[in-house]
Amino acid sequence: MSHSSSSSSFGTPARSGAPGTSGRSASRGTSRGTGRAAKPRFGFGLVGPRRDRHSVPLDQLEALSLPVGDDGMVIGVDAENRPAVLGINRPVPYDVTLIGGLWTAQVLALRAAATGARVAVETGRAQAWTALAQAAGGGQPCIALHDVGRVPPQGASAGSPVVVVRDCGMRPPRGRVVSAPWQSVVTLLPYLSPVAPRLLEKSSLVGVQRVSPDEAAQIGRIMSLPRHEYEALSTLADGVTLWCTPSDRQFVMTQGTDAETGLLGAARRMD
């Protein structure tokens, strides 16, 4: 693997023998070796620095590796204050269930839109989403609101991923639009409801904010959480979420940016 520090672009001096040039025009661009300063050449500019090519042996290539974080949207920071990233746009169906507050769901919607996804919100309380939908995207229709059961096909693709946010209360009906390649579905439940076990079991990712001790114990059984983790669920601060997969768990603090706080207010569990 080799890397050259010089690249071909407009402004690079023409070289002798190149098509459309002559030795005379090429020789006027530099006074290397004469001790005289290079003169500016109209249409070309000053002669740039010259560097030798840089290369490394193949067996040393790994020394050039750089640490790269996960791909996705930043949803907050973990216990070590490192960015926590959620890969919401995926080439496979992806279901997320959030037992939590509207504030967190709306922050997720805004940040999903910022990654370039189109966001479709299925909700029975459109008034709670209207200001967000109008403010998102700088006037571009990147967040659309739909009545419950009225979300049309979204036509998701790799170039136009979609996130469907279902804010349909304690007992959301089965959605007409389901998760699909490049179309993730986020279902918001304000509390643990009778339909929650089914949703939690089929979800690829589960987020849990502050709940009652009884609800915490039920979630612990469903998600196979250690006792110290499910007991902590009844004491979580506003903006803190336990994100769980079948193989991993992480507490994340979500803090609004200035723009998000100005639009949505401070982080809160209750609405």
Strand order of the largest sheet: 7-6-8-9-5-10-11-12
| H/E series | EHEEEEHEHEEEHEHHEEH
Mean of pLDDT: 83
Uncertain segments of ≥5 residues (pLDDT<50)?
Answer: 1-33
Structural class: alpha/beta
N/C terminus separation: 56 Å
Largest sheet: 8 strands, mixed
Enumerate how many helices there are, as a single number: 7
Report the helical percentage. Answer: 10-25%
Number of beta strands: 12
* Shape type: globular
Radius of gyration: 27 Å
The amount of beta strand, in percent, is 15-25%
Task: Give a quick set of tags describing it.
alpha/beta
State the gist of this model:
The protein has 271 residues and is an alpha/beta fold.
Explain what this protein looks like in three dimensions.
- It is a single chain.
- With 271 residues, the protein is an alpha/beta fold.
- It has 7 helices and 12 strands.
- The strands form 3 sheets. Strands 7-6-8-9-5-10-11-12 form an 8-stranded mixed beta sheet, with helices on both faces. The protein has a two-stranded antiparallel sheet with strand order 1-2.
- Strand 3 and strand 4 form a beta hairpin.
Set down the secondary structure blueprint.
Elements: E1 2-3, H1 23-27, E2 54-55, E3 73-77, E4 83-86, E5 94-99, H2 102-114, E6 118-123, H3 130-135, E7 143-146, E8 162-167, E9 183-189, H4 196-202, E10 205-208, H5 213-223, H6 227-232, E11 240-244, E12 249-253, H7 258-264
Parallel strand pairs: 5-9, 5-10, 6-7, 6-8, 8-9
Antiparallel strand pairs: 1-2, 3-4, 10-11, 11-12
